[in-house]
Amino acid sequence: AMALLWVLSCLALAGFARAALPESCGVPAIAPVVRGYNRIVNGEPAVPGSWPWQVSLQVRARGGPGAGENWVVTAAHCGVRKTDTVVVGAYDQDAPGPDQQKLKIEKVFKNPKFNMLTIRDDITLIKLATPAQTSDRVSPVCLPKATDEFPAGTTCVTTGWGLTDSS
């Protein structure tokens, strides 16, 4: 399945991230196209390479954003293990492209406060064994500061692989 793009009117966090200068993260070299205000279901195909922080967590088809060359942030409910593989630079998971890199995990930091019943504190940090090689199609997203506020109705985009309709 191809990388899909969905626009949400809420805050979502996913991907390859970095706490760094704003101009060094979160700006794709290839411009994405964002149309409409679809939900996760009824998403649309992304422009290849336009979400360079999107990563794929291999074995269990989960994803998240990259958080710098050595870090990935994802949901704790994904249950990431050290034996899983992180893939960066992927667009079509069925046809590996020239920018794709498969990376081993050094350590998984699951939030100790995560509660599966309430889905509160649903975050895991993954430290990569080797850094991702950044390019136009592989780069980190920006992580917000703890003090950042996002007003109701703020447009947010989430990306990943999956179905674009409910059938």
TrEMBL record:
Keyword hit for Hydrolase? yes
Entry keywords, A to Z: Disulfide bond, Hydrolase, Protease, Serine protease, Signal
Q: Which GO terms describe its molecular function?
A: serine-type endopeptidase activity
Q: Which residues form the signal peptide?
A: 1-19
What are the BP-aspect GO terms? proteolysis
Q: Does the keyword tRNA processing apply?
A: no
Q: Where is the Peptidase S1 domain?
A: 40-167
Against PANTHER family, the record matches this protein to: ACROSIN-RELATED (PTHR24252), HYALIN (PTHR24252:SF7)
| UniProt-recorded name of the protein | CTR2 protein
> Which classification does the entry list for the species?
Eukaryota, Metazoa, Chordata, Craniata, Vertebrata
